What does this fold into?
Amino acid sequence: MAQIHELSEILSDQIAAGEVVERPASVVKELVENAVDAGSDRIDILLEEAGLKSIRVIDNGQGINSDEVQIAFRRHATSKISSREDLFKVATLGFRGEALPSIASIADVVLTTSTGSGVGQKVHYRGGDLVDQNETSIRQGTDVLVTDLFFNTPARLKYLKSVQTELSKITDIVNRIALSYPDISFSLNHDGRELLRTTGRGDLLQVISNIYGVQNARKMEHIQGQNVDFEVEGYISLPELTRASRNYISVLLNGRYIKNYAISKAIISGYGSKLMVGRYPMAVINIKMDPLLVDVNVHPTKQEVRISQEPSLTNLISKSIYDQLAQENLIPDAIQNL
Ligand code: ADP
Ligand code: MG
It folds into this structure.
């Protein structure tokens, strides 16, 4: 038997990358989440060949201090939490300090950043190695360019699907993040074509219209409700507007897009018998709750979370939808100016 030894940092980063970076859409998700956490109000995403050739995310957020740029690429290095208590009330999308080192270990990454004072920094990593770092002048914000994704992990490269499939995974995640942050102006550009642009004016219905089209947005009703633990607010489609899958339901918890079967089911059950069998509504539901009552540290991608008092939440959601749809024939359509 060989002797027990610690793995090199590069190798352990590559292992962690296996969990965090499954495909180009995971890179886009992590970079855009970092841009959101940096307080940006404008985020531009540029792709070539569904990210297989390149992924670039440009933000106007707070930037990274010159002397911290290399630290940001170390594993478990984060500015977002520092104590055990913080872990129980995470208020940012990131906190595990894994994305940058993971991505840099399996791709070519050039990150340019400036905090707006002094000169900016440009740093280049490839396969986990620092290639070089220079001073550069850019306006405040961060610009990350990822190319050659999975160049040193052939199994992952092989597992990737067609450009069309990878692109649809990317648009899906970008749409959900754009729905979560109507105050941020997002743009998504693929091979020179603009796929999405939101204004950042803070109107959720407008973002729904940008993503799903104005005709669909006109058939959405506003809902809201609250109880001691939860506040819910958002838009649901009228029973006449349905889809063949649940993919048009977005559940956003404290600004994070999550996948939760019980909540999707609660949304559907709020329609009672108004939906045809095999048909699903469109919905965007924002849930606000005390971060202490939700554990986001369940999975590296953070899309699965554990919510305490979940039945109280699912009841609130079903009831808010049921009540709104019961009123629907009595009040005029609230949505006119789209
Ligand atoms: P996490 O997001 O979990 O903290 P990351 O590896 O994604 O871990 O990022 C490490 C750190 O680098 C972040 O905590 C943040 O301080 C900094 N950082 C990354 N991306 C950006 C960005 N776009 N703007 C400002 N700071 C960033
Ligand atoms: Mg992050």
